[in-house]
Amino acid sequence: MSAEYYGAAAVGLAIIATFVWRFLGVLIYQNVDADSLIMRLINMLAYSLVGAVMMQLMVAPTGLLATSALSHRLAGLLVGLALLAIARNLPIALLGAIGTFGMLSLLF
Predict the structure, then answer these.
(1) So what's the pLDDT on residue 72?
(2) Which of 27, 66, 73, 91 has its Cα between 20 and 30 A from that of 59?
(3) Those residues with Cβ within 8 angstroms of residue 61's Cβ, 6 or more apart along the chain or in another chain
(4) pLDDT of residue 39
(5) pLDDT tens digit sequence for 49-62
(6) How far apart are CA 81 and CA 99, in angstroms?
(7) How many CB atoms lie within 10 A of CB 104?
(8) Is-contact 104 75, C-beta < 8 A?
């Protein structure tokens, strides 16, 4: 069997696994209170996974981002978080973070 077959099989299994969980979520949605302990746990886990992926991208990136300095990436992150805390506006925070990272990468 070729590598393409294994790759297609892996993608197919990932699609099936994702669909199964989404389908189960639709089925039990009516029976779960949005403010219940289980929903808060699921929400916490989802946010922590997103945070873990973000930190992975910041600390050990791949591709073109790996050629940039860690200090530039962290400065962009800190500026973005500070702007988000101050302005409470995601587009402004994103522009500030991207702008900081871009300017530091161009200048240094």
Answers:
(1) 95
(2) 91
(3) 68, 73
(4) 83
(5) 999 998 898 889 98
(6) 13
(7) 17
(8) yes
Q: Which residues contact 94 (CB under 8 A, 6 or more apart)?
A: 80
Residue 59 tokens read as: 């600390």
Residue bearing tokens 């991208």 = 57
pLDDT tens, residue by residue, 8-47 = 889 999 999 889 988 888 888 777 787 888 888 988 999 9
67 membership: H or E segment, kind and range: none
Q: Cα torsion for 48, 50, 51, 56, to the nearest 10°?
A: 130
Q: What pLDDT, in 10s, does the model give residues 65-94?
A: 899 999 999 999 999 999 999 999 999 999
Q: How far apart are CA 108 and CA 106, in angstroms?
A: 6
Residue 66 and residue 58: Cα distance in Å, rounded?
9
Distance CA 83, CA 72 (A): 17
Query: Helices 90-107 and 70-87, interaxial angle, to 10°?
Result: 150
What share of residues in the chain are helix, strand, coil (percent, to 5)? Answer: 85, 0, 15
